[in-house]
Amino acid sequence: MKFLDNLAPHVHWVLRLALASVFLYHGLGKFPQLPQLGQMMQMPVFIVLLVALAETVGSLLILLGGFWKDWMTRLGALMQIPVMLGAIFMVHWGQWSFIPSQTHPMGGIEFQLVLLLIQLYFVIKGNNVKLGKAAPASA
C-alpha cells in the first residue's frame, strides 16, 4: 500500500490526460473542417471556431496547469464546460447509453456526463492535490 500512497499525489495526471486527450483530439480535428461542421451542426462557423478553441486551448491549459499554475487548470476546465453542456443538451440528451441508436446517431449522454464531471472536478479542485493523513482506524 505504501507504493500506492506514494503515487496518490500524482494520480491527478490520470484525469488530466484522459480529459485533455479527448478534447485535444476533437478540438484539433475541427479546425480543418470548420465550414462543414458549421453547416452540419447548423451553427455559424464563428461558433464552431470558438468550440474548437475552447476544446484545444482548454486541454493545453489543463495539461500545463499540472506543471505550473492553479488558474490554468481551473480556466482550462471552465472553458470546456459550455462545450460539454452544449453537446449534452443539443445532441445527446434523451438517451443515456453512449451506443448510437436510430434516435441518437451520436449516442447518449453517458460519456459526455463523465467528461463534464471531470471538468467540474478540476474547476473545484484545481491543483490542490495535497493529501491529508488518514485517520486511525477505530477498534
List keywords for this structure.
139 residues, mainly alpha, 6 helices, 0% strand, disordered C terminus
Q: Can you tell me about this structure?
A:
By secondary structure, the protein is an all-alpha fold. It has one domain (12-125). Helix content is 67%, strand content 0%. The protein is built from six helices and no strands. The longest helix is centred in the middle third of the chain and has 23 residues, at 70-92. The two termini are 20 Å apart.
In short, what is this structure?
By secondary structure, this protein is mainly alpha-helical. It has helices at 2-7, 12-30, 34-41, 45-65, 70-92, 110-125.
Shape assignment: globular
Oligomer: single chain
The overall number of domains is: 1
Identify low-pLDDT runs: 131-139
Q: What is the arithmetic mean of pLDDT? A: 88
Q: Gap between N and C termini, in Å?
A: 20 Å
Helical coverage, percent range: 55-70%
Gyration radius from CA atoms, angstroms: 18 Å
The profile of the biggest β sheet is: none
Number of helices: 6
SS class: mainly alpha
Q: Tell me the series of helices and strands, N- to C-terminal.
A: HHHHHH
Percent range for β-strand residues:
under 5%
Q: What is the number of strand segments?
A: 0
Write the layout of secondary structure elements.
Blueprint: H1 2-7, H2 12-30, H3 34-41, H4 45-65, H5 70-92, H6 110-125
Helix pairs in contact: 2-4, 3-4, 4-5, 5-6
